[in-house]
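re: ur question from earlier - yeah i can do the single chain one, its not a big deal. heres the input i used so u can compare w yours
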Amino acid sequence: MTERETRTQWFTEARFGMFIHWGLYAIPGRGEWYMSEAKIPAEQYERYMQEFSAKAYDPRDWARRAKRAGMQYVVLTAKHHDGFCMLDSRETDYSIAKGPFKNNPLRDVTLHIFDAFRQKNFMIGAYFSKPDWHCPYYWHPDKATPDRNVNYDIKTHPDWWKKYQEFTTRQINELMTRYGSVDMLWLDGGWVKAPEQDIRIDEIVDNARKLQPGLIAVDRTVHGRNENYLTPELRIPPKQLPYPWESCITLTNRWGWWPNAPYKSARLVINMLSEITAKGGSLALSIGPKPDGEIEAEALPRLKEIGEWLKVNGRAIYATRITPNYNSGKVWFTADKDGKTIYAIYALPDGESLPATIEWEGNLPKGSIKLLRGNRRVKYMSKDGKVTVSLPDGLKDEPLAFSFRQ
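and the output i got, formated as tokens:
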């Protein structure tokens, strides 16, 4: 296999990652689209920069919590659509490293997050927005505050657009040269594409791969050579897909920090991860740290509970393969690499207790069925293509994973 194929397989087998949405948009607490949706001029929006002190930020704590949650890779928003850089860019002063955080030894946030997660053996992903609403060569200050797109006619001002292309290229080169090994370049803003908004992404990705051999590119929603895996957003595909993919889903109902946003339960996340894995994908779970850099208290027990479940049941998730009969009711199926051991994951819905028995059709066992928690055999009957498993008394109300041979 090529180095890129090896990394893609590693990513596919990792199954579970942390997506960190942290940037200037955490200050108003209204999401990463706030600048565009509220039509806030760049000079007004950039005032939030002076409030972004990140005084409680601790990248090593983030990495520890992600590791304990059972996550295997991280994607950090190094620059979102508002153009504010979470890296110490030499191309602009619009950066966390140039604001109130500038005298902190951790001011190059991207560098220290990547280092902290790399030390925990995570794959490293750099999210970078192709549109930049702060850059004068994308949203020109002499033009009206626009929608999400470039706010001038590129054909009328090709010199402005050329400067934007060059600016984008240089910033991506910074990520590829100054931040250690990067496994994934996660490009967002699919409307910036040829022919209408051509930033020569083929050249940018080719150059990035020269700097980071084996790099996986994710030019999301732009199908073609630079979309090495698909990224369905806030949804799970209805069936298995024949290529690598990742559902990016929020732990709350927002990407970045939003006051009082409701949280998903740990059980719901485990059930989503089980379904995604059975369909051959990975789950990038988005966390939005608060403006001061803390992960909100409500997130912590959920991450802990997910990690405790994976510590017991991870064999049914990590490095598994898809199996043709991958779902029967509330049960999702995965397989070992050899295809002989099947895992059945019962996705106990929120608010429900475990029943006395669970059933599924197909995937008939040969020999015993074992519950992964406690590695204990369970009684079952197999008749007319249906399996009925009797659950032991005293089990915790949680999703259950079983293993058996076929």
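The mean pLDDT is 97. not sure if urs matches, ping me
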